[in-house]
C-alpha cells in the first residue's frame, strides 16, 4: 500500500479494513481532532502527520485477525 495523503482515501481504506479512524489516530499518536480538522479542510497537516497516519493504517491492516476496538 502506498502512502495515502487524502483524508477521505485514508478513511475509506480504514473502513474497508474494518478499522475506525479513532484506532488509526491512536496508533499514529495523532489527536482525532487534528484528523477531523484536516478532513473538514480547516487545516493542512504537516507531512510527518500524514505519514504517521498512513503508516499506522498500513500496520493495522497488516495485523492478522484484526478486530475493531482491539
TrEMBL record:
<feature type="domain" description="HTH cro/C1-type">
    <location>
        <begin position="18"/>
        <end position="57"/>
    </location>
</feature>
<dbReference type="InterPro" id="IPR010982">
    <property type="entry name" value="Lambda_DNA-bd_dom_sf"/>
</dbReference>
<dbReference type="InterPro" id="IPR001387">
    <property type="entry name" value="Cro/C1-type_HTH"/>
</dbReference>
<dbReference type="Pfam" id="PF01381">
    <property type="entry name" value="HTH_3"/>
</dbReference>
<protein>
    <submittedName>
        <fullName>Helix-turn-helix transcriptional regulator</fullName>
    </submittedName>
</protein>
Amino acid at each position: 500500500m502506498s502512502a495515502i495523503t487524502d483524508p477521505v482515501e485514508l478513511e475509506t481504506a480504514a473502513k474497508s479494513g474494518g478499522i475506525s479512524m479513532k484506532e488509526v489516530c491512536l496508533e499514529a499518536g495523532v489527536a482525532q481532532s487534528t484528523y477531523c480538522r484536516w478532513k473538514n479542510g480547516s487545516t493542512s497537516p504537516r507531512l510527518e502527520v500524514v505519514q504517521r497516519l498512513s503508516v499506522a493504517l498500513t500496520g493495522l491492516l497488516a495485523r492478522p485477525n484484526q478486530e475493531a476496538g482491539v
